[in-house]
Amino acid sequence: MSIKFSLFILILSCALGCSAQINSAFSSQCGQVDKVRGPLAEEAANGNFHVRRVEISGNATIRHREFVKRLTGVNEGDIFSIQSLEKAVHRIAKMKQIYPITMRDVELRLDRNSRDVDILICVRERIRK
Fold this sequence. Notes:
Blueprint: H1 3-15, H2 34-46, E1 50-57, H3 64-68, H4 82-93, E2 106-111, E3 116-122
Parallel strand pairs: 1-3
Antiparallel strand pairs: 2-3
């Protein structure tokens, strides 16, 4: 996805109420396979990387603070820990408003120069009745 196209979509979505978030730093398909995410997580944990950004994708109606409450240990500025990320994913998976998630629904991006890690957590909301 080109940056111009991403900006166009972002501006268009904000004109329609900012219900969608587009971030060209992450792939259009959400999540990573274990053999990609695992080594990145190990490198981030062993290298004392800091969490730069935590993003929730797929959320349209759930308040952001509902996710933030469950992200203890992986807040922006914290030192990255695999155990803290796994616990946060487990807590988010228990939310009744979304379908259960696993570590497969998490995507990591490392910035080795600044020793930061960006975390994308992909969710799917349940249909309200």
